[in-house]
Amino acid sequence: MAQTLKNFLAEAPLSPAARDVLLDAFDQGWHDPQKLTQGASKARILQQNSLESIASRLGVHPTELEIVGEPALGHFFAIQGFIEPTSTIFYSTVDKKEIQAIARARQSAVELSVNSLGQINPDGFHGAKHDDLLALQGANAETGVVQNLNEVTERFLSHAQRGLVCLDFTAVGCQQPLPEKWDGAVFDSRSWRGPQGLGIVAIKSGSRWRNPLPHINSVKTPQSFSLPLLISSAVALESWVSDDERIRQLSRRLRDGIRSRISDCDIAGDLEGSLPHVNSFSFLYVEGEELLRSLEKRGFLVDSGSACTAEDLQPSHVLAAMGLLTHGNVRITIHAETTETDIDELIGALIQSVEELRKL
Amino acid sequence: MREIDCTGKRCPVPIIEAAKAIKEIKSGETLVLISNDPATKVDLSAWSRMTGNDSHQIGENRFSITKKATN
Q1: First and final CA of chain A: distance in angstroms?
Q2: How many Å separate Cα B37 from the centre of its chain?
Q3: Residue A235 in contact with residue A218, Cβ under 8 Å?
């Protein structure tokens, strides 16, 4: 009989409501909404309803939403659509690599450091000017560390009064409201257990943004996303129920258990300043990939940010920026289905696996 | 001064080798770790923080490690 593996990966199955609606969404939403048929008219209504539903839950106007078929592409649209040839992009050492790549492709970009808790140092904005852009992460997907958005933004705007703020909310999703000041924001449908392959870009009304791709009509972004996935994502978001307090307690149990029972372990970030469900641990003298395999044999699926599992052999830029151990890293994501028993069993498995691997 | 050559070895081997070697020297003595693994610099720094030993990069792929007083 196959072993049932407990899921502590970042990914989780579709929300049951989103899954239930998916087949029907494909049956109803296959028409091209831009055509003139009755089916297209129905598809337009489904699309508009989905956009309105998502917009209301994210705290934006439906006309401010653009949908793209790939969240990473959303960052490109959101950032590149704002910047001028003379703009400087301010970004941080813990931003996603795709955002760092966009910034580093510019002639002028400033990388902001973070402290050992992963919080951005807001002292690097000297010289910022009005057409500059701050690419700011709501929370880090690897460590869960949540940024103090208002403080960092205020410091940026104190130098660049009419500067633009583009938020990476792909890890935050709907768990926190957008801050008061934002010009662009990128979401990932998976953050509320919607389908993958759907990036949601919010562009504030009236902001100086234009389609960064060569184009000959008025569309802001390519309209090649899947309408059925958009419908499913809207349903997933509608059915999302915050369970933050319970999940935070489970994370506390996990962190306390590991801290007290396994020596020489770095824990990334402070739980109170992090997303409740994301936990990152680095165990000294342990090889990350071996630890993943060992835990899987014991029935637990976890992620790793270790250099040893990455294709380019570079250490995790996030852990390195925080001055944390980059080897022996596991990222443990707690889901709505996770129980206290699961946490206790995972701690037991980690103790055994780390002990075994340190003996090798 | 003792040298440990971990060229071509990937994390966490250089750190494990350094930890083994430092047990064999006296407090206050220094050894040199040679490693071209891109993770060594940050991991050695984290290891020093966790163990109390002192480490510095002294050249490309070369690091000095001084054993703390109470090891």
Answers
A1: 31
A2: 12
A3: no
Give Cα separations from A21 to A44, A57, A231 (angstroms). 17, 19, 8
Is CATH 3.30.110.40 what the domain over B3-66 is classified as, yes or no? Answer: yes
Q: Which of B16, B39, B49 sits opposite A307 (nearest CB)?
A: B39
B52 and A CB contact within 8 Å = no
Where are the domains positioned within chain A? 16-239, 243-359
Report the distance separating Cα A78 and Cα A33, nearest Å.
24
Which of B19, B42, B49 has its CB closest to that of A326? B42
B46 touches chain A (CB under 8 A): yes
- Is A243-359 in CATH node 3.90.1150.10? yes
Tell me the per-residue pLDDT of A237-289, one tens digit each, with 9 for 90 and over. 999 998 999 999 999 999 999 999 999 999 999 999 999 999 999 999 999 99
What kind and span of H or E run contains B16?
Answer: helix B13-22
Complex-level ipTM beyond the 0.90 threshold: yes
Nearest CA in chain B to A263: B50
Shortest CA distance to B2 belongs to which of B29, B36, B40, B35?
B29
Please state, in angstroms and rounded to a whole number, the distance separating the CA atoms of residues B5 and A254.
Answer: 38
Stated pTM of the model: 0.93
- Residue A223's pLDDT is 78
Helix (H, G, I), strand (E, B) or coil at B1: coil
Q: How far is B43 from chain A (nearest CA, A)?
A: 5
User: What CATH number belongs to A16-239?
Assistant: 3.40.640.10
Residues in chain B with CB shorter than 8 Å from the CB of A280 are: none
**d(Cα B46, Cα A307) in Å, to the nearest integer?**
15
8 A C-beta contact, residue A344 and residue A334: no
Looking at the annotation, which residues of B are catalytic?
A: 11
Q: Is B44 on the interface with A (CB under 8 A)?
A: no
Element (H, E) at B30: strand B30-34
